[in-house]
């Protein structure tokens, strides 16, 4: 696995907000550094999960067993400023997901040893990660 600077890690994280497509190369440093290729795009309308599975080779020609490195990019919450153009996404992120997280945090002050249920988005994201780990077991 490549070693990246903090600045490069920020560049990698910013990729999660781009309109990445399957089989397309993902780069940073003005296209000088290749992170990998998009092998899967997740856009779960029910939970609001948005993620990209990036592999070290092009999934068009590389078998899952040949993949050595996998990067999973999860998109953060859609900005409330986009309520006009992406109302459903803002609702799923801020009302359905983040509100439950905030409520769990508030409840934890009253019951500090209680384990609260994860949000639907968290469960969906865990399934995405587990699926990628199963598919690319040599990474």
From the spread of the alpha carbons, the general shape counts as: globular
> H/E order of the elements?
HEEEEHH
Overall tally of structural domains = 1
As a percent range, the share of helical residues equals: 25-40%
Oligomer: single chain
Q: Which structural class best describes the helix and strand composition? A: alpha+beta
- Please tell me the overall pLDDT: 91
- Outline the biggest β-sheet: 4 strands, antiparallel
Strand order of the largest sheet: 1-2-3-4
The number of helical elements comes to 3
Number of strands: 4
Uncertain segments are: none
For the record, give the distance between the C-alpha atoms at the N and C termini, rounded to a whole number: 9 Å
What's the gyration radius in Å?
17 Å
Tell me the strand percentage band. Answer: 15-25%
Explain this structure to me?
The chain is α+β, with helices and mostly antiparallel strands and 139 residues long. The protein has one domain (6-135). Helix content is 35%, strand content 19%. The protein is built from three helices and four strands. It has helices spanning 6-14, 87-110, 120-135, and strands at 25-28, 33-43, 50-55, 70-74. A four-stranded antiparallel beta sheet has the order 1-2-3-4. The longest helix is centred in the C-terminal third of the chain and has 24 residues, at 87-110.
């Amino acid at each position: 696995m490549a070693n990246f600077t903090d600045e490069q890690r920020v560049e990698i994280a910013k990729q999660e907000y781009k309109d990445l497509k399957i089989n397309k190369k993902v780069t940073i440093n003005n296209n000088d550094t290749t992170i990998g290729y998009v092998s899967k795009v997740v856009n779960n309308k029910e939970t609001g999960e948005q993620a990209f599975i990036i592999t070290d080779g092009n999934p068009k020609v590389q078998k899952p067993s040949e993949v050595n490195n996998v990067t999973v990019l999860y998109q953060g919450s859609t900005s409330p400023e986009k309520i006009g153009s992406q109302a459903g996404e803002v609702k799923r992120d801020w009302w359905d997901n983040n509100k439950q997280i905030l409520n769990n945090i508030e409840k934890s002050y009253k019951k500090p040893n209680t384990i609260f249920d994860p949000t639907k988005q968290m469960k969906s994201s865990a399934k995405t990660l587990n699926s990628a780990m199963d598919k690319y077991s040599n990474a």
